[in-house]
Amino acid sequence: MKLYWCPKTRAIRALWMLEETGVAFERVLVDIRDPVAKAGAAFRSVSPMGKVPALEDESTRLWDSGAICLYLADRYPAAGLAPAIGAADRGAYLQWVLYTNAVIEPAMAEKFSAATVSVGAHGWGSYEQMLEVLRTGLTRGPWILGERFSAADVLLATSCQFLMQFKLVVDDPVLSGYVERCAERPAYQRAAAAETF
Ligand SMILES: N[C@@H](CCC(=O)N[C@@H](CS)C(=O)NCC(=O)O)C(=O)O
User: Contact, 2 vs 26, CB < 8 A?
Assistant: First the structure.
């Protein structure tokens, strides 16, 4: 399995997720700030938009952090990163796995671009709604599904990190406490160590 990755990007999600599974993989650095590196044929065959993270697993090619997390959780069930199909919390799991790319990211784009909000028409509602629903979800703790850590936490915690890093959220104990709990996980620490080479 090959992970196309670049430090300080959304690729941390895939890297952390791979570390949580404990499986062997190859990490391939693609400097997305370098147009030549980004245009490489091998990378583009896995990531048509030239974005990281991208994952190649035999004939499977994925170029979205949410899809990669879902894929790895199902591919390596022994790691326990997803409730099984039919389990009581499978629905909640799917809902929260999709929340990052379907709701948080568009809401962040709304905030950054100071776009006019149309709560009824925009699939993500509004930035404020996104945050309120996320905070409420996290109050169950320690993880988004309660007692059980899952791939949804990898996506949501990294989103919370980005919200805090970009100062969209300041002094929020619910979000920062969640990020701190995740940062204590050995798999997260191994992934974070790769970011600081
Ligand atoms: N929906 C994708 C977005 C990936 C994405 O936009 N990655 C950025 C880095 S954080 C990137 O590779 N940008 C380079 C570019 O678009 O040129 C995901 O969640 O993985």
Answer: yes
Residue 179 backbone class (left: φ over 0; alpha: ψ -120 to 50; beta: rest) = alpha
Cα separation of 57 and 191, whole Å?
19
Residue owning the nearest CA to atom 3 of ligand 1: 64
Map residue 125 onto helix, strand or coil. Answer: coil
Q: What is the pLDDT of residues 51-105, one digit of tens each?
A: 999 999 999 999 999 999 999 999 999 999 999 999 999 999 999 999 999 999 9
Please list every protein residue whose CB sits less than 6 Å from any atom of ligand 1: 9-10, 32, 50-53, 64-66, 101
Q: What is the spatial distance between Cα 172 and Cα 112, in angstroms, rounded to a whole number?
A: 19
Q: Flag whether the pTM goes above 0.85.
A: yes
Task: Give me the domains of the chain, ranges plus CATH numbers.
Answer: 2-80+188-195 (3.40.30.10), 90-185 (1.20.1050)
